[in-house]
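Researcher: Before we compare anything, I want clean individual predictions. No alignment, no superposition, just each chain on its own. First chain goes here; please echo the sequence and then give the structure tokens.
Model: Echoing the first chain and its structure:
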Amino acid sequence: MLRVGVHVSIAGSIDKAVERAVEKGCDTFQIFSRNPRGWRYKALTDTEIREFIKKVELSGIAPAVVHMPYLPNLAAPDDKVYNRSVASLTEELRRCDSLQIPYLVTHLGSHRGYGKAKGFERIVNAINTAFSEVDNGVMLLLENTAGTKNSMGGTFEDIQHIIERIEHRERIGICFDTCHAFAAGYELRTEKSLKDVIKHFDAVIGLEHLKLIHLNDSKGGLNSRLDRHEHIGLGYIGEDGFRTILSEEHIKKLPMILETPVDARRGDIENIAKVRELVGNG
């Protein structure tokens, strides 16, 4: 069965996110566990935790996924930002565990011009530090990036370089973003090219590590290095491209989260419907 959902708001209280996911017809959903645009956060109350877990169970939606906030940068050269980022990662692993959420998605950050070698060192140290401080069953999903200037994790090789240096590799998985991959130069639109990408992923990282799909169209062309999401089928990947992606055996069985725009053209419900329509016509 296709499991498709969107990122939903936690405004009001975190358990309200489950109601929003149900209203939008989600089979899976993603949240921020707190305000994504600030460093400060409030501890989750026992009531919030209990209500969230209960509502998820009643909804039958699975899995719920948490995305790291916007400010943390695991590759940051600045010590103050870096230390706060590591503390954020550690705290999010704890919050996911308390909410019984299996996956925490993280971007790999930007080296800010200090070079990939320094960026790799920072990311590896950040994850190893967080894992040593928090020992639980939450899996950290590393998200591929669009290959924008100074960003880390734009190639499968770069991601594998990080994974190899993690002490508890069993706690690491991959979130594959279609927009980011396409913008970084991975051709996903034809059956042959997609098979080649999947084969390459398997050879470098291993398909067993692929746990979640961020299903987004791209406002930029192939290898544009532009990280701008578009409605499903309305960007450069296009409807035919998504028919191909959604019929791929390794992808279609994974939970898929849409991070598509909400504007006058379409909202979340319409994008979910478009994905289901393309699967039906696949």
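Researcher: Okay. Second chain, same rules.
Model: Second chain and its structure:
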Amino acid sequence: MTRVLVFGGTGQLGLALQRAQLPASWEIKTLSRRDLDLERTDAIEAAIATLRPAVIINASGYTGVDKAESEPELALALNRDAPAAMARAASAIGAPLAHISTDYVFRGDKPAPYVETDARDPVSVYGVSKADGEVAVLDAHERAAIVRTSWVFSADRTNFLKTMLRLGETRDEVGVVGDQLGRPTGTDELARACIALVSRLLDGDADAAGVFHFAGAGEATWADFAEAIFTQATQHGRNRVRVKRILTAEYPTPAQRPANSRLDTSKIEALGITPAPWRDGVRQYVAQLLA
């Protein structure tokens, strides 16, 4: 059996990986923060040395974008130091590593979608921690793949889709930012992409190492995303909810967000890993939650 070690097994992507269609020879072993203190790099390296997986997927991380502004040390520990330890330990046993990153490594002022070679220039503590994590992983392991994604949603845990459905239970109108642009990404699609990329890494494909972008096909503002969610909700008996488009300046947050989070996915598509439309994921998850 091919042992695949997944860090972050109880998160959105970790759960999606566990329900995904896997190669017949794969056996997934998950570790969450309940199983292992990811602030202890020695514990991470010891776990990898003991389990000796064939490949590692790091779906863990500090995801509190606003909270990171007041907890920079914790954000850096989980998003930089922990992945660096994983990469060192994976390299030591010859196991490739796939590490999940984010559009927040970019400033967001580029007029076109970001490509993998664009310079990292984050505008938040969270973004800095993820950018530093990318560098640390790539420095420690030549057979590592960084998968940057954006606006992740699912039927699990807390995310934008579930928040909109919750607000729609009690409101006729919801104000949503309409001047930030990105590509929403369903976790099942992201899991599929990770599995395909990891399979290539296991086969020794050098083209599967490095930095890749993967996000749902099609672009949207947060307001567009919300409207799609509410439209689908009406198909399952929910009342129509209006979306009031507001400016980022009207919804101040501790952390600055990129105005442009669009990721160009041409590079990963050249490997035959093509994202489905993000609206398909909205239909799937809203039906799953409301049917």
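Researcher: What stands out in the second chain?
Model: The chain has nine helices and twelve strands. Additionally, The domain at 2-158+185-216+262-277 is CATH 3.40.50.720 (Rossmann fold).
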